[in-house]
Specification:
This protein is mostly beta strands. It has one domain. It is 5% helix and 39% strand. It has 2 helices and 12 strands, in the order αββββββββββββα. Strands 1, 2, 4, 7, 10 and 12 form a 6-stranded antiparallel β-sheet that branches. Strands 6-8-3-11-5-9 form a 6-stranded antiparallel β-sheet, with no helix packed on it.
Length: 201
Amino acid sequence: MAITLNKAQELQWVKEGRVYHGTHGALTTPAAFETDLVRQTPDFMIRVPAGVVIVPLRVLVVAEATDTAVFQALVSTCDNDPGTTGRTAFTPINVNSRYAQRTASTVTCYVTSTDNSGTAPTNVADVHRAYVQPRIDNVGTGSASFDQVIYAPLHGKGAPCVVGNENNMNAFLVYVGAAGTSTGYILTAWAEFTYAEFYAV
């Protein structure tokens, strides 16, 4: 039987040790975001190898300091491998502490794109977008209120997506763009399956 997507299933996936998380920025050291949205420079990327499928569950973009009048974020997928040029690897961690030290993720994650010389994403699906014009690091002193960027498709925030196929690498991409200096954090979570498990083939 193929997998059914619904929010009641999330805790079961956590219990089974299928859910992993990745972050950009750590503790009190925020990440430096890009200055604009460019397809070849995601701020966070999950590369999904052939034969593996992921279901993205959550992306949280937390802005800490912005020196800009425009702040935007984009969550998307593609059906090719954007490559690893100019990126820093991040090792995913299982969110079920029972499995955290002994069950390795089957995907690879990368943060901090430093150039746009990688392969352009193809057959892109944009599943969530946020855009705000006021400076968001001084909300309450004249700027409009701002809810942090939250992508939670099984809870009605953004479109659900499934990333991965049987024959080649695919990717899940998170972009943050600010027209000036901007720092903050990205927190992500996803469930992992083999292609055969997910599609019952």
